[in-house]
Amino acid sequence: MQNFCGKPFEIHFFRNHSKSASTYGALESLSTMNGSMVKPRKHVLCTALSSCAKTLNWHLGIQIHAYMIRSGFEDNLFLCSALVDFYAKCFAIVDAKKVFSGIKIHDQVSWTSLITGFSINGHGREAFLLFKEMLCTQIKPNCNTFASVISACVGQNGAHEHCLTLHTHIIKRGCDTNNFVVSSLIDCYANLGQIDDAVLLFVETNEKDIVVYNSMISGYSKNLYSEDALKLFVEMTGENVVPTNHTLCTILNACSSLALLLQGRQVHCVVIKMGSERSVFVASALIDMYSKGGDIDEAQCVLHQTSEKNNVLWTSMIMGYAQCGRGSEALELFDCLLTKQELIPDHICFTAILTACNHAGFLDKGVEYFNKMTTNYGLSPDMDQYACLIDLYARKGNLSKARELMQEMPYDPNYVIWSSFLSSCKIYGDVELGREAADQLIKMEPCNGAPYLTMAHVYARKGLWNEVAEIRRLMQQRRVRKSAVSYICSG
DNA sequence: ATAGGGTTAG
């Protein structure tokens, strides 16, 4: 048995993780043909290439490319488009571009394949530029093209303008009722904070599928309209649209952010009805929802009922303990997992355990974990873990050690770090370090009155009335407002 | 025969 390159084919190669029957069939028939020395026809190669793209079967894909060249199929537009798609999906965007440039006469599919390729490889700008280039040709974009180019624009610079331009073209070409296009547009508008535009589009769409609903629900959630997200979820259920795990996660997050324990429990019922508890995504959303809602025992139950546990689930639980002040339990769980080697901790695990130490005031333990991170697990701490440790020292009153760490760490302290440091300076009445922290904060956010007020408080406690007056003068001179938020922030 | 949407956790 020979393959296209003269080496034997490995049959098991075709029995990979392809999900669709057609993918399996295409690869299977290709292997059978190969065994019987029948030359595969062009359309078989085309389907096979598409399957290689879907299953990231690089090895077979490049063999098909080689075979195409040897058999004189190099100029076939169908095969070339499929090749562009294959290379792009396998992250070989340079090869995809090369094949695309070699095509003499393009069609909608070849253009769309490369636009999608740029998009999924994170080159949103190039995707949009290529789309504009396409507009200058005879070949007009269709719904597939629009769906790709819009999702490429999400989060890009100039997304607002691009979205407007695209929407105009979409209406002109009658693609504004296509669910693929609508869901991308909703996502794009929601990411721009233009929730009204997203809603307008949503209500004007007649036969909405689950993805369109999911886009709108997560759009609401992203823009902090969690109540609307929940309302739409209920409405969707009434329309007999079946939620996916993705829907449930989004909805549970909405419940978490509103600390809506009651509604969260109802969603938990839906989760059980759908048999979605096994999804680690759903389980971690549940744990998070119960933790934030204050029902740590229920969070524990969810964790225990989840058969496949991973880092995210464990970390959610540890963070849950940390946030509700059950520091000892957080440490106990973490240590137990390490001993049993059930957890290979990463940066976020350490943030969780350091948060637990911080909330419970376990300084020695905190230092121990912080050091363990590097010595036992080869992880170099990032800003978050430094922030925990610095805050831990400062809250315990060791301000100079905290200040030292801020200088030692390979990052510039951010607003949160300076701000919590200032709070500790206030508690322990350290004028010198407090003044430094306040100066830094004022430099970072000149209009925020909070650091001025905290410093005024520190000075007043020490009876430094001249300094208090100086602060008042500075605030008037710089027109810094004492907003309600500032009062709250200054503690 | 070839191309398309929402990727959900800490």
TrEMBL record:
Any GO BP annotation: RNA modification
UniProt entry tagged with the keyword Repeat: yes
Organism, as annotated: Sphenostylis stenocarpa
This protein's UniProt keywords: Repeat
GO MF annotation: an example: mRNA binding
NCBIfam families cross-referenced by the UniProt entry: PPR (TIGR00756)
PROSITE patterns: PPR (PS51375)
Stated name of the protein: Pentatricopeptide repeat-containing protein
Pfam family of the protein (one): PPR_1
PPR repeats: 107-141, 209-243, 310-345
